[in-house]
Design brief:
Strand content: 15-25%
Biased composition (Low complexity): 790-826, 833-842
Radius of gyration: 27 Å
Distance between the termini: 47 Å
Shape: globular
Region (Disordered): 738-855
Number of strands: 34
Structural class: alpha+beta
Number of helices: 17
Transmembrane segments: 860-880
Signal peptide: 1-25
Biased composition (Gly residues): 754-786
Amino acid sequence: MVSSALRIRAVSAALALVAGMGLLAYEPAAPAANAADNELTDSAVTLSWSDGIVGADNSTVVEERDPEHFMYDDFDGLEVTVSQTDDIQAQAVDVTWSGWNPTPGTADFIGNYLQVMQCWGDQETGPLPENCVWGAEGMPLPGKIELGSLFRGVSASDPLAGGVPPHYQNPAGGVHVPFRPANAEDELVYPPNIETLFDRWTTNEVRGVRTDADGNGEAIFTVQNAIDAPHLGCGSPVEGPDQAVDGRDCWLVIVPHGMHQVGGTLVDPAATQDAQFADGSPLTPTLWNQRIQVQLDFAPVSGTCPVGAEQRATIGSELVAEAMFSWQPGLCAGDGATFSYLSMADSEGRRQVTSDVEGATGLAYTYSPVTPVEGGPEIVHAPVAVSGLAIALNIEELDGTVVRDVRLTPRLVAKLLTQSYLHDVPGGYQLFAGFDESEIPEWQVENPEDLSRDPEFTELNPEVPPKIRSQWGANMLRIAGPYPADAWRELWRWIQADDEAVAWLNGEPDEHGMVINPAYQELNLDEPPAPDSVLRNVENCYHNPESSIPEPGYCTLDLLPFATSFADSAHRARLGQSGNRADWDGYATSPSGGLGWWSEVDPQGPGWRWQLAVTDTASADLYSLPTASLRNAAGEFVQPDEANLAAGVEAMVPTDVDGVLQIDPETDNAAAYPLTMITYAAVREEQDEEALADYAALLTYAAGPGQTPGLAAGQLPPGYLPLNDDLRAQTLAVAEDLVTPDERDDPPGLNPNGPGGGDDGGTEGGGDGGVDGGDGGDDSGGGLDGTGADDGLPPGSGDAPDPAALAPNGGNESTGDPTQPPADGAAAGGPDDGTAPGVDDPSTPVAQSTPGEPIGPMQYALLVVLIVGLLGATAGPAVLKLGPRAA
């Protein structure tokens, strides 16, 4: 019998090999604001309801209020602030309000609440109701609310109902506001066909947000651009009179519900059902006339660099993604080179940049250094960005209050990563009717249902509410996969540096009796080498023999599906989408082609959201997600803010490669954020002069204007820490050396004692093992031998991948053209012949790793990509696209 550990290793190998395909293809876009801590930008706008409806400049009144209207007193005094209105992309903005009246009750929507939606429309006067995304069916109710307020119907009691346009008459019956798509303005789409454009998973409408006892409230709104929502068209390129490309503007519309129904009846919470709630769709005329509209100036989703210009390729770590989006327009301005950027596994980027094949990319972004093959091209490293891996939060109390402060220890994160909570295992005892609790495995008996009910967590976070049981859907921690990443290895190194976590991973119960899932204990995760990918026991399935559901039943990747990227993790967490499939749909098509498959659970509604996501600091800022405070080796809980990221850089130690630093997970620097990461541009020196000059220009820009924090195109987006003087000097020196080869010196090192920091080969490395190499690693665990030679398998694996063990929804479809958008949720990959871009026969090794740092080969890439792509393509609702990441 094959052990659980071996199954996990085999599947980890297969999943890691998907790294051969690029994850996402990118085009230029502007950066996003940081509203995670309710910060306002220079373009923030505050509007008073009583001042009237404003137009294009967010100040000129295009429609005044009527003081005699029966709703005037309901809204007089209401002021709404939108945190950012310029340089908008696919992101989140913070909508706050004050000066209003509290919502009655504790969780329901009786009155005095807001609804928020995104619309396209007239650039001067604003949108019509038919221009707005509203009324997706099947979404969970935000507490008790009048049902008509959730849809697109015109209320019969609305005194203005008789004046609606004739085309509001729904051919299917009733009077509804149709939707008119921005990309098909002559069409009208009526309910229920609106779900062909947007549904419960793709809508961004905010169905209801309460006002607190002080008259204040907050809604974090996820804005969509033309890539997310072609039917809105926001950010579609528009050429101005000076031939400059701008993005099509759109509108944020906030509709208040007061204490009057649309027919004029005063709401009475103690009355009968008919008068108990404020009623009416926000699109019904009387309520629509009470709207506050704010114009949003969108960055163009494409066209900021010359169309058809030859692109200079860059690839690698996703940690630099948001910075590259911002820098690309600045780099191509003034006849500068146009740079493409393709995100892929760090290890694959390092492998490709060492290739001497003609046309191979000359620059790869990476955290760990690259060591070229003997006799191969030399590689230089230049730091370009400082950011961090983060655990982002979307947790709300029942009344909608946002939880911003959460503390996590390495052991708590280890519990989440090892499927050790009951609800993280298929067949967790509350998941299915008829499940016999006496059959609970012994190891699960003392384990909590989920993180929010773990005594270790509640003792650290007494103010954080538990997850609502009716929203049992697991996957409380969204993780990106199945590709490897240096960031994952650093997360595991942080865990392995903690004595409590190590003891628990080795099988010792915590103080409350919780133990590790034994399938993961067999993996020896308590000791180096740390894996650089996410492990999932994908063969763990639950099948109720009394049900009609066919074998294998409900499996790990149905319960805990991967996100496609760090940004996708953050995006889905912001929308409250756990992603797990828990509802059996007998009419759905399974990956094997038969009838019957699991469907995705509904997004979590307001007041029910309880989501964490492993992401990067830039993506957390992009989607306005607070981040957890992590306990460092000094015992302090620290946020990834500027001061703690700077301390994290200060606490780094040299690697074996001169000028490249790495995290010291055992540092005693109390301020150091433990997952601070520097992204380096690894450049191959043996390129033609034009290519070297272009890459030198990129480095010069990245170390110069690109380090100016801001929201405008070309600046450093929120979530990054500007490079310090030493790091900038290093990058500028590398850039100069690239264009003056005759005077080329070794790049300036940051360790006065020379490379390697001594004879031990680096942090946690033994002898020649280097980073994480230990004394040579364990072949069964996917490490390296003592010389740093690659064992031929991705980290965490001991056997060739077994594609049959892949869960049906564990992968993504790949496309061959990195300049074109992949299919929804798909990943961009290499040429159709299965080789990575710019690399010849994938079975021929072209690079080795820095000693002790594994780089997986691609022998099985095509097979795995085909299987995962084909299976993933049939596995239910399409993954949400990621704005400019799919451009």
